[in-house]
């Protein structure tokens, strides 16, 4: 079975994440959306909210599993028997950052990183931009799936 993880904080889930996930499930038998938990990071949304956004968005996708993890991503991959890490690339800066992580992961394990370019219409979207728009009362609904829209 070709199992991959798509790690991130998903604070919040964006249309860019959604794009990579939907394209990623065509490549793998199972895709685990791995929500990272970092005690040192301050999140806008609670872990429960982030899990709910993701669970509701992908509830009809049988190839998707949603799990949380702490620690090294490669250790989590080994724990869930995933041979691949899926990552999205928006721009050259993402590539340089992700390349360094992928090389480090290959030194630590046999896990292979697979990169997908974000679709052009979504390449400008990041969780930090979405959080800034939300904090400042802007219309963030065009940047996130329906399940993320606040009441």
UniProtKB/TrEMBL annotation:
It is an enzyme of class 2 (transferase). The record marks 17 as: Transition state stabilizer. SUPFAM superfamilies: Nucleotidylyl transferase. It catalyses: (R)-4'-phosphopantetheine + ATP + H(+) = 3'-dephospho-CoA + diphosphate. InterPro entries: Cyt_trans-like, PPAT, Rossmann-like_a/b/a_fold. Keywords: ATP-binding, Coenzyme A biosynthesis, Cytoplasm, Magnesium, Nucleotide-binding, Nucleotidyltransferase, Transferase. Residues 5-132 form the Cytidyltransferase-like domain. GO terms for molecular function: pantetheine-phosphate adenylyltransferase activity. Pathway: Cofactor biosynthesis; coenzyme A biosynthesis; CoA from (R)-pantothenate: step 4/5. Substrate binds at residues 9, 41, 73, 87. ATP binds at residues 9-10, 17, 88-90, 98, 122-128. Pfam families: CTP_transf_like. It is found in: Cytoplasm. It comes from the Bacteria. NCBIfam families: coaD_prev_kdtB, cyt_tran_rel. Belongs to the bacterial CoaD family. Homohexamer. HAMAP family: PPAT_bact (MF_00151). This is Phosphopantetheine adenylyltransferase. It comes from Maribacter aquimaris.
